[in-house]
Amino acid sequence: MDAWDCSACKFRIVIYNGVAQALPPESIAHHARFMEDYERIRESEGRGSESEDFYLGLPYRDTSGRHREQWRMRARSYDYLVRHLLDGTDRGDRILDLGAGNGWMSFRLALAGYRPCAVDLLANDRDGLGAARHYQTRLPKLFPRFQAEIRRLPFADGQFDAAVFNASFHYVEDYEASLRETMRCVRTGGLVIISDTPWYAREESGEQMLAERRTAFQRTHGTAADSIATLGYLTDERLRRMEDALSIHWDVHRPWYGLKWAVRPLVAKLRGRREPSKFRLYVARKGA
Q1: pLDDT, average across residues 223-229
Q2: Could you please report the per-residue DSSP string of 191-236?
Q3: For site-directed labelling of 42, which of 131, 199, 227, 288 has its Cα 20 to 30 A away?
Q4: Residue 59: cis peptide before it, omega within 30 degrees of 0
Q5: Please, which contacts does 220-228 make with residues 24 or more away whose CB atoms are closer than 8 Å?
Q6: Methyltransferase type domain location, by residue (predicted)?
Q7: DSSP letter at 92?
């Protein structure tokens, strides 16, 4: 078992099964219930697989057949990210993958020539950072993996060229603190990108979605999964608050997710239901 000692803060990062464990004891205690609930829900939902082919196919093929629609959307977001948002960056750039899960995005970025670094709270071998072992036979060297919380990242100032919240920004507790910490780790002129976080036109719709989810989780999994109050969703007002607090500007990108996604608002209106979520990509560039 290897370990790194930080000369500045005296914190020791232990490397276990290839994952750098960068959660201090107080953070482990704070997130323990959340991680326990989240892992149980993900397992119940059939996340992960025993097959290496499952991981190697993501996000383009879900060989489990359980979440094909979700992975189809992830694939379109990822393709848009690489073709339109990272297109002006150099191959070899350092990309911080925040909320990396099993590491599929870091794997794809590594194949494309970037130098990704995966960060997540979960380190298990099925749906967390441990699952990235399936990629090591396809890469010259497996990308670094850190078990850490976003508002307390174990990296130097300006260490990365870009950071991507990988379907994870809605899980942060304090969006201003998390975004500020992420900006710290990105170089001047670098990008911070929020991908695959639900957006609503109305605050009431987001709150209703969260209430529906809590009820469904309680009924299906025996927990409301609300031990920690997370952001949950985005609205234009929340995005404006971030702009004001951090002196940034969001460029909004709208990938095409298919006709089925495009007509969801109309279908919901005709059926008298709340507005459905929309998914966009938000890009901010770090100023001097």
Answers
A1: 80
A2: EEEEEEEEE-SSHHHHHHHHHHHHHHHHHHHS----SS-----B-H
A3: 199
A4: yes
A5: 220/44, 221/37, 221/40, 221/41, 221/44, 223/37, 223/40, 223/41, 225/34, 225/37, 225/38, 225/41, 227/33, 227/34, 227/37, 228/30, 228/31, 228/33, 228/34, 228/173
A6: 96-194
A7: T
Cα 106 to Cα 118: distance, rounded to the nearest angstrom: 6
Per-residue pLDDT tens digits for 177-186? 999 999 999 9
The token pair at 174 is: 């304090």
Encoded tokens for 87:
């297109």
Q: In this structure, what are the phi and psi dihedrals at residue 189, rounded to the nearest 5 degrees?
A: 90, -10
The pTM assigned to this predicted structure is: 0.94
Which domains are assigned to the chain?
24-285 (3.40.50.150)
Give the model confidence (pLDDT) of 145-166 as tens digits: 999 999 999 999 999 999 999 9
Contacts of 93 (CB under 8 A, 6+ apart): 86, 114, 115, 161, 162
Helix ranges, the chain (H)? 25-44, 52-57, 68-80, 104-111, 175-185, 203-221, 236-246, 259-262, 264-270
Compute φ and ψ for 33, nearest 5 degrees.
Answer: -65, -40
What distance in Å separates the CA atoms of residue 168 and residue 195, rounded to the nearest whole number? 8
Q: Residues in the chain, how many?
A: 288
